[in-house]
From TrEMBL:
Residue ranges of every copy of the Transcription elongation factor GreA/GreB C-terminal domain listed in the record: 122-157
Domain of life: Bacteria
Name by which UniProt lists this protein: GreA/GreB family elongation factor
Keywords linked to the UniProt accession: Elongation factor, Protein biosynthesis
One Pfam family here: GreA_GreB
UniProt GO molecular function: translation elongation factor activity
Organism: Pelomonas margarita
SUPFAM superfamilies referenced in this protein's UniProt entry, alphabetically: FKBP-like
Amino acid sequence: MDKLLLQQQVLDRLAEDLLQAERAAQLAHETATHEENIAENKYDTLGLEAAYLATGQARRAQAIRAAMSHWRQFRPGAYDAGKGIQLGTLACLVDADDRQQQLFLGPPGGSMSVASGDQVVQVISSEAPLGAAMLGKCEGDEVSLQVGGARQQFEVLWAR
């Protein structure tokens, strides 16, 4: 699997998300400022609610722009077995039920699933609990994390 292709897929998806957030912010802003939505009494809150929504969508768009900046600057390198799993590593984990999952450890803001050929790769950040638990692990190592009241355990099948 090509890590640069995975990176481009993440950037493409983030660009789509940004476009949607910007459109939603614009629509909410237009609703908030439309003359028909001027409050006539204290119970008439459509304009105010739309203004809150516009602010939230604008913040979401800004967060996506920040994520895109991180992903543009990101340079996934070759896997170094001496360091174990690091930012830019593509790894395969298996759980106790023999279910495998491929994970690509990237910068913040790119949490999503992408397709690479017939494989699905989950993109996660090193800030995510599973991503943090994977750091420094090598093939054959156990990755363990507490989720709610349950402990989840995985084995690293391979890393690249």
